[in-house]
Amino acid sequence: MKIKTEAGERHVLAVTVDNEAGILAKITGLFSARGYNIESLTVADISADHALSRITIVTSGPPAVIDQIIAQLDRLVPVHKVTDLTDQGAHVEREIALVKVAGTGDKRIEALRMADVFRAKVVDTTLSSFIFEITGTSDKVDRFIALMRECGLVEVGRTGVVAIGRGSEAL
Amino acid sequence: MTEMSGADMVVQALVDLGVDTVFGYPGGAVLPIYDALYKHPTIKHILVRHEQAATHAAEGYARSTGKPGVVLVTSGPGATNAVTGITDALLDSIPMVVLTGQVPTTLIGTDAFQECDTVGITRHCTKHNYLVMDPDRLGPIIHEAFHIATHGRPGPVVIDIPKNVQVATGTYTVPGIIEHKSYRPQVEPDADAIDAAIDLIAAAERPVFYTGGGVINAGPDASAALRQFVSLTGAPITSTLMGLGAFPADDPKWLGMLGMHGTFESNMAMNRADLIIAVGARFDDRVTGRLDAFAPEAKKIHIDIDRSSINKIVPVDLAVVGDAGRALDALIAAWQDKGLKARDYGEWWRRIDGWRATRCLDFPEAKEPQADIMPQRAVKALFDATRGRDPIITTEVGQHQMWAAQHFGFSAPNRWLTSGGLGTMGYGFPAAVGAQIAHPNRLVICIAGEASLQMNIQEMGTVSQYRLPVKIFILNNEWMGMVRQWQELTYESRYSNSYSDSLPDFVKLADAYGWTGLRIDTLGELEDGIRTMIETPGPVIVDCRVAKLANCFPMIPSGAAHTDMILQPNDIVGTMDDEAKALV
Ligand SMILES: Cc1ncc(C[n+]2csc(CCOP(=O)(O)OP(=O)(O)O)c2C)c(N)n1
Ligand SMILES: [Mg+2]
């Protein structure tokens, strides 16, 4: 007997929660306990009094699973609101990566040229290394990192996705 | 607003919340609270013999009264021992508040003596939990915890209180009416959804009500509304294990329980229905059987207070989110407003009567006085002997539980206490203790298996201490019967570790604890034995020896369709493929 898994589509969820101890464990634990995917998860407090945090979760699953994820998140006591940005339509997604490249000569020049094409900023340099800061969709960041692998990539840090709906409406 | 110690605040909050009973066990990290409870004039503390039993007793108290059960245990092993009952309450939606002691805040995270990460351990087996770091927060948190445990879909809430927070002083504040900032379950059903439901029900030709524990949780008025609405529509009704008692078992519209050990008529009716009206039930795998064969011809209406229950397992045509009682009231009002009358379901009832004619709960038995007692007969005799006494019945987990569900007829809610979702052996006896504490003058009987009972048998001491007249009726088949049954079905009767070897002499055990012990060996002794049990004051344990190899039918094997019921032992085939074996 083999165990089967089902393919799904990518969704970006914005979840506002009480900024309290254990909330992140509650959310990530819900995903692991119920076998949902997390592709990325970011969290930071967003209100002037530090009472609320916004968690952006990129997940994937068939429509019924996405619906369950939203319902399960929504019933957690400290969760205020869950919004499926993918479902809602037009939204902006951004991610920041810090990309360290080491090397000298042609590779170093090539890295700098490509960073320029991707509008990555140099935020630190030595004679044999750069740290680039790149902002964009996960796709763009992925592509930049893939190219940097050819140019002496030694280290990457990524924030994961933050996202927000287009237009004047708020969540 | 008064300045007092954290421990005094805990007790004050319990008093203010109307708590009369706490089930618990002391230890270093809760000594301040125990001291505050010392000789308390209104709060009765019931000292159990194991913390798991405190949680099940609290469940029994809650399930039989509708009020939240309250538990008090120490840190570390006290808290971990409580985890099974907390999880049981989560799966069966039982309102419960568990207060756990914790090491002082200054020692948290240092692997201190009897430290465990209680909020971490219970994070996913509670509805919500708290670690209280500041005594000023104790009042609001305890009040909020009771609010959360009892509102929306009920469940267990843990409050972990470090010892220095119990000793320190602060101001006790009582929040007003709790308007929780994020937890606002929808109680009132949407009016359009109710209208749409009425249209579906009025148009159906083969409707079935499928109800669950949510109706019990919604209170006795919800059960009354269910009876009224079912009688207005004239439709047949079945229920889950957790929902038994919401609808009277002697009503002609009652089809019996559905699911794995449900009746043939209820499962067939679900399979052939054109409309299923699910009320406070959650399409558990024990109920649905094989999903692609579940109620294939039916439109489905799902009324539930928990939106995450809707479309979780079975996609439905119409969702009504709200309290089961309010939804039923709204359905009754809408039905009457529209001047609707019960349809003539004549043809549907004729088909149902055909399924009923299989008499699926009948069982073979010898009738002479020396004969072995069939376990089903024992349950029926217990039911007959207690009619008119309005008993509260609890069960352990196994075949005896299913036989009790099949053969004991309930006609009112809050009288049937069983572990459905988690299926916890060791639940029934402590649950009976909790129910008896809540109802000192009622007849409370735990129908037990000899194996399950041993999981919390230490509570005999609790019963003796508080002079509780609990009756334990053991269907002693000397086997973990349900395990043996599955081994027969799935593993060609290789009985791996399912024999209850080295059983104690239960009658002598009764004696050791100052109970009355009885043994019933043959059919001829059954009725007298039961009568003696009922008429004997104080606690009684009955070791009722039953046919050892009886199996529980009907049965839908795991993962089979409702139409593939095994009705009789000789329908059994000896092996199963891996897909079937992989299912629980
Ligand atoms: C705590 C726990 N452990 C294991 C099981 C698995 N289990 C289900 S029924 C059963 C046997 C119960 O035997 P007994 O109490 O004698 O009841 P019977 O089936 O014989 O009526 C077992 C081991 C369980 N439900 N709960
Ligand atoms: Mg047994």
Description:
The complex is a heterodimer of chains A (171) and B (584). Chain A has 2 domains: 9-88, Alpha-Beta Plaits (2-Layer Sandwich); 91-164, ACT-like. Chain A, domain 2 (Alpha-Beta Plaits), CATH 3.30.70.1150. Helices cover 30% and strands 40% of the residues of chain A. Chain A is built from 5 helices and 9 strands. Chain A has helices at residues 23-33, 63-74, 85-88, 106-117, 138-149; strands at residues 9-18, 40-45, 52-61, 79-84, 91-102, 121-126, 129-136, 153-158, 162-165. Chain B has 3 domains: 2-172, Thiamin diphosphate (ThDP)-binding fold, Pyr/PP domains (Rossmann fold); 191-356, TPP-binding domain (Rossmann fold); 375-552, Thiamin diphosphate (ThDP)-binding fold, Pyr/PP domains (Rossmann fold, 3-Layer(aba) Sandwich), CATH 3.40.50. Chain B has 23 helices and 20 strands. A 6-stranded parallel β-sheet of chain B has the order 3-2-4-5-7-6, with helices on both faces. Chain B has a 6-stranded parallel β-sheet with strand order 11-10-9-12-13-14, with helices on both faces. A 6-stranded parallel β-sheet of chain B has the order 16-15-17-18-20-19, with helices on both faces. In chain B, strand 4 (69-73), helix 4 (77-91) and strand 5 (96-102) form a beta-alpha-beta unit. The longest helix of chain B is centred in the first third of the chain and has 15 residues, at 51-65. The A-B interface holds A 1, 17-18, 21-22, 25-26, 29-30, 33, 64, 67-68, 71-72, 74-80 and B 119-120, 123-124, 127-128, 131, 148, 152-153, 180-183, 185, 306-308, 310-312, 315, 578-579, 582. The complex binds thiamine diphosphate (TPP) and magnesium ion. Magnesium ion binds at residues 398, 449-451, 477, 479-481, 500 of chain B.
